[in-house]
Amino acid sequence: DVNDQEREVQEQLFPIADFITQVKVTDEMVKAYYDKNAKLFAVPEQATVEYVVLNAEAVESQVAVSDAEVSDFYAKNEKRFGSPERRTASHILVNAPKSASAADKAAAKQKADAILADVRKNPADFAKIAKEKSQDPGSAEMGGDLGVVEKGAFVPSVEEAIAKLKQGEISGLVESEYGFHIITVTSVVPAAIKTLDEVKGEITAELKKGKMSKKFSELAEVFSDTVYEQADSLKPVADKLKLTVQTVSNLSRTPSPALGDAPYNNAKFLQAVFSDDALKNKRNTEAVEVAPSTLVAGRVVQFKPASTRALAEVDAAIRQRVTVE
Fold this sequence. Notes:
40% of the residues lie in helices and 20% in strands. It contains 11 helices and 12 strands. The strands form 4 sheets. Strands 9-2-11-10 form a 4-stranded antiparallel beta sheet.
C-alpha cells in the first residue's frame, strides 16, 4: 500500500540571483517582447475637464423663508397642527329593539333602571356590572369598553351623551334603536394645538422644499440655455447662477468604480464630454441630468488620445521581465 511506503528526499535550490549574471538580454529580445505585448504598454485616452454642477445644495443657498411666511402658513393651516379631543367610553345595554312590544320595552326600562341604581351606588364596579348584565355582545366581555369614540361610530343619542359627560360621570338611561344604555366616559384627552414655536422648523422645511423645487426648475432652464448659448466657457453660467467651476483630470470614456457617484463619473456625462464637438472644438457639453435634480455641464480643457508608452520608457522593465523568464 502506497500509504505505508516511506521515502527519503533531497532538494537542491537554484536561486535566480545566482544565474542572472549568466543571462544576456539583447535589444532584439526586448523589442520582440515589446511588440508582442503592446497591450501591456497602452495608455488610454484621457481628458482634463472643467465642470459646473447645479443641484439642490446650490439652489438651497438661493432660497429663503421669512418668519412672516411661516406665521402666515401656520395661521392658514392651524387645524393641521392640532389634535381633537379624544374620549374613551364604556356602556351597559339592556336590549329593547324597535320591534319590541310596549310591555317588553317597559320591562327592559325597569331592568335598566335597576342596573343604573346599582351602578350609581357602586361606580367603581361599572366594568364588573357591565360584564354581568350588559346585553351588548361586542363589549360586555370587556366590561362595556367601547374604546376611543370615533365620530359616526355609534347611534346619535349615544354619541351625544358621550360628548356631554365629564370623565367618570355616569349618564342616565339613554334610549336608542337597540334599547337602553348606561354610559360612562372613562378618559378625556383635551383638544390641543401645537404652538408656532413648536412647528416652526417643520413649516420652514416644507415651505423651503416647495420654493427649492420651483427655483430649481427656473435655474435649470437658465443653466441649460447659458451653457449652450455661451458655449466657449463655463464662467458665464457660473457667474450668473453663483456656481463654482471645478476641474477633474484623467477622465476616460467609461465610468471608473474608484470615482463612485461623482457627478463627472456618470456615463451620460462622459458620453457628452467625449463627443466630437466637445473634444475637437472645446465647446461646453449640454446640461446633462446625472441624478434627480442634478445637472452637470463640462468643457474639455486638455485631451490626450490613446497611445502606447515609448519603448525607451519601458526598456528597463522589459529587460528585467525577459531576464527572469
